[in-house]
UniProtKB/TrEMBL annotation:
Source organism, top-level taxon: Bacteria
Keyword Nucleus in annotation: no
Organism phylogeny: Bacteria, Bacillati, Actinomycetota, Actinomycetes, Kitasatosporales
Cross-referenced CDD domains: CBS_pair_HRP1_like
Gene3D superfamilies to which the protein is assigned, alphabetical: CBS-domain
Entries under Pfam families matching the protein: CBS
Domain CBS: 8-65, 73-131
Keywords, in A-Z order: CBS domain
Key word Nucleotide-binding present: no
Protein name listed in UniProt: CBS domain-containing protein
Length: 142
């Protein structure tokens, strides 16, 4: 069975919720990533911020990225997957919650990230379309 740990990118890094969005953007640039998991003071996942979040919810709104923090952007229940979860479980989690990136947790610690491209590379060709359709579908309004 192929697991989340088998398909993830290792070396993912937290950003504390107290970190400024300017520092978060610089870290994304340095790591060549478009998203960072956000941790609370106990190094527990409390959300994810993306480069798009910084642009749309901070910069485009006229806020100062050197004063806004990651905590200002995180909302809702963060989604994650256990390192031993099957690819099918990863697909289910991403599809059900319309997320494109998923932190991988092992023993309560961040060990990697999975993107939709990682999943697509590990699905049979006939399942890639169904997966993409679920992830990119418009989520129901609540």
């Amino acid at each position: 069975m192929t697991t989340a740990k088998d398909i993830m990118h290792e070396g993912a890094q937290w950003i504390p919720k107290t970190e400024t969005l300017l520092n978060a953007a610089q870290r994304m640039r340095d790591l060549h990533v478009g998203a960072l998991p956000v941790s609370d003071e106990n190094e527990r996942l409390c959300g994810i911020i993306t480069d798009r979040d910084i642009v749309v919810k901070c910069v485009a709104e006229g806020h100062d990225a050197s004063r806004c923090t990651a905590a200002d952007l995180v909302q809702g229940t963060p989604r994650w997957v256990d390192a031993n979860a099957s690819v099918e479980e990863v697909v289910e989690e991403m599809g059900n919650h319309h997320v494109r990136r998923l932190p991988v947790i092992e023993n309560k610690r961040l060990v990697g990230m999975i993107s939709e491209a990682d999943v697509a590379r590990n699905l049979p060709e006939n399942q890639v379309h169904a997966f993409a359709s679920r992830v990119y579908a418009t989520p129901p309004q609540t």
